Amino acid sequence: MSRLIKIYTDGSSIGNPGPGGYGIVMLSDNEDYKKEFSQGFNLTTNNRMELLAVIIALEKIKIKNSKVKVYTDSKYVSDAVEKGWLFNWVKKDFKNKKNPDLWRRFLRIYNDHEVKFQWVKGHNNDFYNERCDFLANLAAKNSNLKEDKGYTTNLT
């Protein structure tokens, strides 16, 4: 029987666009295992970081067909999946939709697991959501920022 993996994610952008980052906390269902991840980027958007956090977390899972619950304060991400908008965007090849590079990357890993999303209100004293917010903002202010090539490529 597969155990549930809980993933908390958050993304930030200082200015939108601007420097940004993501924060992730991954937990086993009984919270005996916990791992944190974060990374900053020199020019990106909040929505890209929200989505990238989920992607990176799912890519970290080594066991296929894992049961995963993603807790996010991003309606952009949770509603796109849970309300089925994403699958309509795919049918239209993401015409007039932002972040198709990340959505395509998300779909490649999403189908490897049983993923459910739970929206949580941001800045509402949810311990792990607050921790992810802290990690994302800290990463955005880091001096070692990466380039979000998917964002900068689409600027031209």
How would you describe this protein?
This protein is α/β, with parallel strands linked by helices and 156 residues long. It has one domain (4-149): 2-Layer Sandwich (Nucleotidyltransferase, domain 5), CATH 3.30.420.10. Helix content is 38%, strand content 28%. The chain is built from six helices and five strands, in the order E-E-E-H-E-H-H-H-E-H-H. It has helices at residues 46-60, 75-82, 85-91, 100-110, 127-140, 149-153; strands spanning 4-13, 18-28, 34-44, 67-72, 114-119. The protein has a five-stranded mixed sheet. Helix 1 runs parallel beside helix 4. The longest helix has 15 residues, at 46-60. 38% of the residues are buried. The model has no long low-confidence stretch (mean pLDDT 94).
What are the main properties of this structure?
single chain; 156 residues; alpha/beta; Nucleotidyltransferase, domain 5; 6 helices; 28% strand; globular
Task: Map the helices and strands.
Layout: E1 4-13, E2 18-28, E3 34-44, H1 46-60, E4 67-72, H2 75-82, H3 85-91, H4 100-110, E5 114-119, H5 127-140, H6 149-153
Parallel strand pairs: 1-4, 4-5
Antiparallel strand pairs: 1-2, 2-3
Helix pairs in contact: 1-4
The residue fraction in helices comes out at: 25-40%
What proportion of the residues form beta strands (DSSP E)?
A: 25-35%
The structure class reads alpha/beta
Q: How many whole angstroms does the radius of gyration measure? A: 15 Å
Domains (count) = 1
Oligomeric nature of the chains: single chain
